[in-house]
Design a protein that fits this description.
alpha/beta, 200 residues
């Protein structure tokens, strides 16, 4: 997930390096930007992802946090709907049937397979790497319980190349990271290590 506060360099260059390293989804998560600045950042991220995917068999996707309008305007692939964002059914009408729609959950019973979601983040599985913890870590048992609720899960919170495999084994379809890549000296190398751990 892209968080400008953690960037050590240019956003587009960092995203391009991470995607070349194996990242397959990029979520633009910025609450403080004006509409125009958020659209400009998302445009830059979409461009970086498309460049990084040239010659690749599978595309990487771009999602925008909460803002279906920005996702639509920038040609992004979907929206991550926060608890204070529009309903999934409304986002689906705006973005179309092919769009990725997701939410964050902090307990297995918050997941609703009938909500028309493409995925959900479950967090925090472990203590976050990129910020101070604001809630207790759920652990792998909660991830296993949530995986049976019919929504593909991305494990989030404290995931890196050393523990990503355990999240997959517990039932996650993938992992969502911020600090493991953005706080690394070389985001491309960090992304490649994480990709290799997941592929293993």
């Amino acid at each position: 997930m892209l968080d400008r506060a953690l960037l050590r360099g240019d956003a587009a260059a960092t995203v391009e390096a991470a995607v070349r390293g194996g990242v397959d989804w990029v979520q633009v998560r910025e609450r403080e930007l004006t509409d125009a600045a958020l659209l400009a950042l998302t445009d830059a991220v979409v461009g970086a992802v498309r460049r990084a995917c040239r010659g690749r068999d599978t595309p990487a996707r771009v999602l925008v946090n909460r803002r279906a309008d920005v996702a639509l305007a920038a040609g992004a692939d979907g929206v991550h709907l926060g608890f204070d964002a529009m309903a999934a059914a409304d986002a689906r009408r705006v973005l179309g049937d092919a769009a990725l729609l997701g939410v964050s959950a902090h307990a297995p019973d918050e997941l609703d397979a009938g909500a028309g979601l493409s995925y959900a983040h479950l967090a925090p599985i472990f203590a976050p790497l990129s910020k101070a913890a604001t809630r207790p870590a759920l652990g792998l048992a909660a991830l296993t319980a949530a995986a049976g609720r019919g929504v593909p899960l991305l494990a989030q919170g404290g995931l890196d190349c050393h523990n990503a495999r355990s999240a997959i084994e517990a039932g996650a379809a993938g992992v969502a990271v911020t600090g493991a890549i953005l706080m690394a000296d070389d985001p491309g190398v960090a992304a490649r290590a994480l990709r290799e751990a997941l592929d293993a």
